[in-house]
């Protein structure tokens, strides 16, 4: 695989980042995951805008222009022959060669790394046909989840808790209300109405969420953005999640409670179809 690091395209075994990099030592880094379908980037613009915002919220320098970023994405897709898959992009604050809690000097260059993940069959995945089983866990993350940082230890532990329980993923709950999934936004459907948490600093402003809510409105579906509890979601007709890595993923079970007949619901299936059609 050819990867990109700080201006160079290199074989993955030759790419190097300093051990003092603050991304490595302190998770002082932000990231984006963009999907690729039929060799084309899905919603690059949305990801580029969110990256800029994440960087600015953390007073981190932009490593390059949006046009250069697009060029790097396209070149990696081409060099690695990606038809279906993902591109991971990470920008960290870099380092001035030592460990310190205070930021390094202003002229320290951010570290930028991109790599592709080839995922043939992503759009047609067996997992999306089965639907996901979810457990709920406490949300103990920090309070700025709207910034896409690489502080992913808790979501990673959540995923492992789900696996240990024989499930696929976890939804996080704070003050009695669902925030989001470990790596996706969360929705349930009751009586034809789609319910999802409103945007705030409590959740990531999903690029897929934005697209799917627009498509739902265009398809005359009713969407309500409000707080909701796990109990409400358990009583739903169906549920689903959205993310760049799994598009629209039906949810068929929450904390051992089967939703509907235990297969992906009609609205989740329809939205997945519309999303994949329109993105291509
Ligand atoms: N995760 N919420 C969280 C906590 C996420 O990590 C993600 C994305 C989303 C969905 O955002 P988007 O639709 O822009 O992908 C919501 C990526 C895919 C990841 O960490 O791999």
UniProtKB/TrEMBL annotation:
| One of the protein's GO biological processes | branched-chain amino acid biosynthetic process
Q: What's a single GO MF annotation on this record? A: L-leucine-2-oxoglutarate transaminase activity
**What chemistry does it catalyse, as a reaction equation?**
L-valine + 2-oxoglutarate = 3-methyl-2-oxobutanoate + L-glutamate; L-leucine + 2-oxoglutarate = 4-methyl-2-oxopentanoate + L-glutamate; L-isoleucine + 2-oxoglutarate = (S)-3-methyl-2-oxopentanoate + L-glutamate
E.C. number, please?
Answer: 2.6.1.42
Q: Which cofactor does it need?
A: pyridoxal 5'-phosphate
Q: Provide the alphabetized UniProt keywords.
A: Amino-acid biosynthesis, Aminotransferase, Branched-chain amino acid biosynthesis, Pyridoxal phosphate, Transferase
Please name the PANTHER family in this protein's record.
Answer: AMINO-ACID AMINOTRANSFERASE (PTHR42743), AMINODEOXYCHORISMATE LYASE (PTHR42743:SF11)
In the record, what lineage is assigned to the organism producing the protein? Bacteria, Pseudomonadati, Pseudomonadota, Alphaproteobacteria, Rhodobacterales
Q: In which pathway does it act?
A: Amino-acid biosynthesis; L-isoleucine biosynthesis; L-isoleucine from 2-oxobutanoate: step 4/4; Amino-acid biosynthesis; L-leucine biosynthesis; L-leucine from 3-methyl-2-oxobutanoate: step 4/4; Amino-acid biosynthesis; L-valine biosynthesis; L-valine from pyruvate: step 4/4
An annotated GO cellular component of this protein is: cytosol
> At the top level of its lineage, which domain of life is listed?
Bacteria
Q: Which Pfam families match?
A: Aminotran_4 (PF01063)
* Function comment: Acts on leucine, isoleucine and valine.
| UniProt family annotation | Belongs to the class-IV pyridoxal-phosphate-dependent aminotransferase family.
SUPFAM superfamilies per record: D-aminoacid aminotransferase-like PLP-dependent enzymes (SSF56752)
Biological source species = Ruegeria meonggei
Q: Which InterPro entries match?
A: Aminotrans_IV, Aminotrans_IV_CS, Aminotransferase-like, BCAT-like_C, BCAT-like_N, Class-IV_PLP-Dep_Aminotrnsfr
CDD domains, per the entry:
D-AAT_like
This chain belongs to the protein called Probable branched-chain-amino-acid aminotransferase
């Amino acid at each position: 695989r050819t990867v990109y690091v700080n201006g160079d395209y290199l074989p993955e075994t030759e790419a190097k980042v300093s051990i003092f990099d603050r991304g490595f030592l302190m998770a002082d880094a932000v990231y984006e995951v963009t999907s690729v379908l039929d060799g084309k980037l899905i919603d690059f613009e949305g990801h580029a805008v969110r990256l800029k915002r994440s960087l600015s919220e953390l007073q981190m320098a932009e490593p390059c222009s949006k046009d250069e970023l697009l060029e790097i994405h396209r070149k990696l897709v081409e060099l690695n022959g990606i038809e279906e898959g993902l591109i991971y992009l990470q920008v960290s604050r870099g380092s001035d060669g030592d460990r310190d809690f205070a930021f390094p000097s202003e002229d320290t260059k951010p570290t930028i790394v991109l790599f592709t993940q080839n995922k043939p069959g992503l759009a047609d995945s067996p997992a999306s046909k089965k639907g996901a089983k979810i457990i709920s866990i406490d949300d103990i993350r920090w309070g700025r989840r709207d910034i896409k940082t690489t502080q992913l230890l808790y979501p990673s532990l959540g995923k492992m808790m789900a696996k240990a329980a024989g499930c696929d993923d976890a939804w996080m709950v704070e003050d009695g209300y669902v925030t989001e999934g470990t790596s996706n936004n969360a929705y349930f459907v009751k009586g034809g109405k789609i319910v999802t948490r409103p945007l705030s600093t409590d959740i990531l402003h999903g690029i897929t969420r934005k697209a799917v809510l627009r498509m739902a409105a265009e398809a005359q579906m009713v969407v309500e953005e409000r707080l909701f509890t796990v109990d409400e979601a358990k009583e739903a007709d169906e549920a689903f999640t959205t993310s760049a890595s799994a598009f629209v993923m039906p949810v068929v079970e929450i904390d051992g409670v089967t939703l509907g007949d235990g297969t992906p619901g009609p609205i989740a299936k329809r939205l997945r179809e519309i999303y994949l059609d329109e993105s291509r």
